[in-house]
Every structure is written in structure tokens, then in C-alpha cells.
Amino acid sequence: MNDSILDLVGNTPLVKAKRIFNKPGVNLYFKLEGQNPGGSVKDRAAYNMIKSALERGDIDKSTKLIEATSGNTGIALAMIAGIFGLDIELVMPENSTVERVQTMRAYGAKVILTDADGGIEGSRDYAEDKMKSGDYFMLNQFGNDDNWKAHYQTTGPEIWRDTGNKVTHFVSSMGTTGTIMGTSTFLKEKNKDIQIVGVQPTDDSRIPGIRKWPEAYLPKIFDPKKVDRVLEVSEQDAIEMSRRLAEEEGIFAGMSSGGAATAAVRLCNELESGLVVSIVCDRGDRYLSSDLFE
Scanning 44, 167, 224, 227, which has the fewest C-beta atoms within 10 Å of its C-beta? Predict the structure, then answer.
């Protein structure tokens, strides 16, 4: 038995690819982050950011939190803020899926929708301006070390443990870059030869959860030295792989997971031997109002 839903954050399963990739000597495993209670990898960072801020005394029950999000972090923050009795305002582009907005509100958050043309950058600008009034505290997932440290403390150790210390490559989509920064830091400490592969969209692609940031918006927690290689994937490839994950592997996930899986399969096809772990960021049910699975 668990004392709190928060005890269920982390320790997500690894499952081996059976149909989308099958080659002797090379094993591809997916880490199913949709199994977190809030439905995504962002539960880890949200929990660590809020818990650490409370422990340091940066925030208390009277603090009004505000954060810009493309979706998954907002859902995680809404859930965890509610558990701790904190008020939170989440800012996201108006073209975000209705499931995401409704889920945040279900957890008790206030949701502000900014102009779709401005993207997540516009949402970040809005949140920054509101914070300057002095009435809000921003956790700032893009510049908060507690984001990547969540993965240093949990995701990396889980992968090392569950692969029996045999992981050779780690593949992750890059958004805030918290997942890849923290996991890379841990795995490289264990074995400097483990290859860390980041995934970005091609210039003409829009893939929710994966970004190629303009220089002014590059996450402050990002350190390019912790990524050995970056693979670019197209929007169409990410869509097709998301559908294949569901149809062929029974893994129902969003487009950023499809993007990471595309890169992982491409990488695996280059290898003669290895154990590759790819992050499946979330669950597909929060994309049903989009055309991802049509």
C-alpha cells in the first residue's frame, strides 16, 4: 500500500520492442512514462520542483504559482500543486488539445490560453510579465535545476538498474531538456561510453513536446556537452511512428514519443550490438481530439 499518489511517481516499466524493430544483437526498450499517475514523464520534474521549493521555503501555502507549459508539465504541476494545497495558474497556447486544458482544470488549476501564433514562447512571455508584478512565483521548468535533478535522482538510476547496467544508448526528445540532462548526467557517471541521443524536429516540422529553440529561448538548464548526438525527425515520421507504436506494440503515446521512437529505430539500424532505451513521454489519450490517430 502507498500513503500518497506521489509514491507512484517514477519506477516506470521498460518494455522491449517486438515488431517495429527486431534485429539480433540489438535490443530496443521503451520506458513507459505514461504510467506515472499524471500520465507523463513530467510528473518527476513537477514533483521535485514543488517539493524542493517548499523545503527551501521559496514558496508556501499563500504563494500563487504561475508557469508556461505546452501541456504535460502543466498537468503534472496542476496535480501536484493540488495535493500540496497550492494555487497555480498555467499558461499555454490556445491550440493545445482540449484534453490537456480540461485535465489541468480538473486538478484545480486556472488555465490561461495565449495566442496560438505565438506558440509556447508567447506563453512564456505572458507568464514572465505576470511574474514581474510581484504577485506570482514561477517554478521556471526551463531554468530550474530541480527539473533535471529529478531525472538524475530517478530516471537515470532506474534505467541503469533495470537494464542490469547494460544500457549502451539513451534516446530522448528534447523540450525543456530536463529528462535528457538529468539522465545523461547520471548514466555518464556510471559509464562514460553510454551514448546520449537527443531528438529535435526538422526545421519545417511542429511536434508537440519537442523543440528546436530560438537562441533567446534556449532552456538555461541545457548543456550541449551532455548530448553526444542530435537526430532530427519530421512531423510526418513522428505521426506515423506514434500510430505504429499503438498498432504494433500496444504502446499508446503522443507525437513526441513517436519522434523519439523514430530516432531510436534509426539508431538501432546502425548498430551491430547494443541496448537502447527510448523515452515514451506520455499517453496517447490526451491527443484524441487532434488528428494524430485519425
Answer: 224
